Amino acid sequence: MAQRKFGSAGTHAEDVSTAPKPRVLVVDDEQSLAEVLASVLRRDGWTARTAYTGSDAVREAREFKPDAVVLDMMLPDLDGLEVLSRIRAWDADVSVLFLTARESVEDRIAGITAGGDDYVTKPFSLEEVLARLRGLLRRSGSTREQAAASLTVADLSMDEDAHEVTRAGERIELTATEFELLRFLMRNPRRVLSKAQILDRVWDYDFGGKAHIVELYISYLRKKVDAGREPLIHTVRGVGYIMRPPS
Amino acid sequence: MAQRKFGSAGTHAEDVSTAPKPRVLVVDDEQSLAEVLASVLRRDGWTARTAYTGSDAVREAREFKPDAVVLDMMLPDLDGLEVLSRIRAWDADVSVLFLTARESVEDRIAGITAGGDDYVTKPFSLEEVLARLRGLLRRSGSTREQAAASLTVADLSMDEDAHEVTRAGERIELTATEFELLRFLMRNPRRVLSKAQILDRVWDYDFGGKAHIVELYISYLRKKVDAGREPLIHTVRGVGYIMRPPS
DNA sequence: CCCGCGTCTGTGAGAATGCTCAGAGGCATG
DNA sequence: CATGCCTCTGAGCATTCTCACAGACGCGGG
How many cross-chain Cβ pairs, A to B, lie less than 8 Å apart? Predict the structure, then answer.
C-alpha cells in the first residue's frame, strides 16, 4: 500500500520523521478540560503542556516556548488578551487559538482573527480544536506545506482548507456536522471507531444526547458519500464504524 | 500444572525482556471481582494491585504509580470521575478503563473516552477487559507502536484495530462473539483450552448458560475459518480445544 | 463390532442492534 | 420579521445475533 500523508492507524503527525513534534501550551482554568485537550493533542502528534492560570501560562510559555497556545479567554487571574500580549512580548511568532464562551463579546475577537489567530466557542468539539490548531500551525509556521490539508481514502478526498469533499472528482455537499464526522473517519482509516469515540470527538463535549445520533449521521453520510458506489463506510456490528477502501 | 511464564503461550509481550511489566491498579468495591481481574491481569503479564474504595485508590495510585487504572464508576465513597481527577492531578498521563453499569452509559460516558480513555459495561467478559487495556497501553504508551495489534497463526491473521480477520489473504466476516472467541484461541496457540476456561474468559462473568454454547460457537468458527482448509481449530476430546498450525 | 458418551449442528424464538423516516425546534440568513 | 436549512428526537421496522433444544454423528472402550 502506498504511504499515506496522514498515516495509517491513527498517526496524524504530518511529518514525524523530518520535523520535531510541534509544541502546544493549553491554558484553561477547568483542569479536566485542559488535561483532556492536552491528552488528545499528544495523541495527535503534539508535545503538550497545561497551565490553569494566566500567570502560570505566561511563566510556562517563557520556559516551554510553544509553537501554539490554546488559551481560554476567561481566566481567574488574568484576562486572555493580557496573557497573550505578555507572551507575545517574548515570542511574537506564537500562534494562538482562543477558547471563548458563546455569549461572550465577539467584538473583542474580531481583531484577533485578522492577526492570523483563531478562536472556537465553548462548548466545542475536540475535532474542531484539532482542526483549527493544525490550520494555524500550517499557516503561520514556516511550514509552507500548504497542500498538506488534504485527506484521501480511495477515490474520496477532502480538502480541509477549502472545506470541500469530492468523490471520483465529483463534488459532494456536506453540512458542518457531516463534514466533521467524515473528517474524523478519514483521519482514522482502517480502524474501528466506537460510537462513544465518535460522539466524544465530533460532538461538543457537553453534548447530552445519545449515541443514536451517530447512526443518524452515518446514515446521512452514506447517502451522500457511498450512494450507489463501492462503500467506504462500514458497520462493525456491536463495535462501531470503520472507513476502509475496497479491497 | 506446569509453571508458566507470564505471557504464557501467545501473549504477545515480545518485549518482556526489554520493557518492565506494565503496572495496573484495579479499583472495584466488589472485592472478588477486583481480585479476579487482578489475577487474570497478572497472568497476562501485568503487575497488578487492587483497591476497594475511592480514597484507597487515590492513595494507592500515588504510591504504586500505575500505567493504567481499571476503575469502577460506582464506588461507595467517591465517584469514579472524582477519583480519576484526583489521580490525574498527580499523574496526568495515566490511562483509565472505566467499568460502568449498562444503564449509566448513555448519560455519563460522553467526554470520557475523549481523552483516549475507554470503558466497558458490566457485565463484561475478561477478554474484553484485557483487550481494551492492551489497546489503551499500546496507544498511550511509547508514542505510537501501532503495528502491534496483529495476531497470526499460520495463514490466519487478525487485525484487532480494524476488527478484521483474514485467512490466506481472504477476508472472513465474524460476529462480535465469534471474534472474541477466535482472539482468545489465537492468543493461546498450541495450548488446550477447556470449555470452562473459554466460558470464563470470553463470555460475561455472570453468564448463566452452559458450556454447550462453546461447542456451538466453535462450530460457527470452524465453518468460517477452517472451511475446507487445513484445520487450525482442533478438538481434544474430554479436555477442550486447541489452536494449532498444521505441522 | 457394538455401545455409550461426548461432540457437532440444524432449527427457531426472542432479543439486541442498527437503519430510516417524519417532524419539531433552533439558528442563521435574507 | 419571515424563510429555509440544519440538528436532533422519537418511533417503527428490518436485520442480525445469541442461545436453547434436540437429534445426528463419531470416537474410543469394551
Answer: 77
Could A43 and B106 be called an inter-chain contact, meaning their C-beta atoms sit closer than 8 Å?
Answer: no
Q: Please answer whether residues B119 and B110 qualify as being in contact, where contact means their C-beta atoms are separated by less than 8 angstroms.
A: no
Calpha distance A203→B141 (Å, rounded):
26
Dist. CA A156–CA A186, nearest whole Å? 9
DSSP letters spanning A182-208: HHHHHHSTTS-B-HHHHHHHHS-TT--
Considering only residues 69 to 88 of chain A, which have any Cβ-Cβ distance to chain B shorter than 8 Å?
none
Distance CA B56, CA B51 (A): 6
Contacts of B102 in chain A (CB under 8 A): none
| C-alpha separations of B195 from A127, B207, B239 in Å | 44, 14, 8
- Let me know: does A233 contact A218? Beta carbons within 8 Å: yes
- Mutation target to probe the A interface, by most A beta carbons within 10 A, among B97, B106, B118 is B106
Of A197, A207, A244, the CB nearest to B113: A197
Instruction: Tell how strand B68-72 and strand B47-51 pair up.
Output: unpaired
Residues B68, A218: Cα–Cα separation, whole Å: 32
**B171 beta partners:** B166
Give strand ranges (E) for chain B: 23-27, 47-51, 68-72, 95-101, 118-122, 150-153, 156-159, 164-167, 170-172, 233-236, 240-243
Q: Which residues are A170's β-sheet partners? A: A167
Interface residues for strand D (CB within 7 Å) are A 175-178, 203-204, 207-210, 212-213, 216, 237-238; B 175-178, 203, 207-210, 212-213, 216, 237
pLDDT in tens, chain A (247 residues): 333 333 333 344 444 455 688 999 999 999 888 988 998 999 889 999 999 999 999 999 999 999 999 999 999 999 898 999 999 999 999 999 999 987 665 666 666 777 788 989 999 999 999 999 999 988 876 555 555 679 999 999 999 989 999 999 999 999 999 999 999 999 999 999 999 999 999 999 888 888 999 999 999 999 999 999 999 999 999 999 999 999 8
What's the CA angle centered on B26, arms B20 and B31, to 5 degrees? 140
Dihedral sign for Cα A214, A220, A223, A226, please. negative
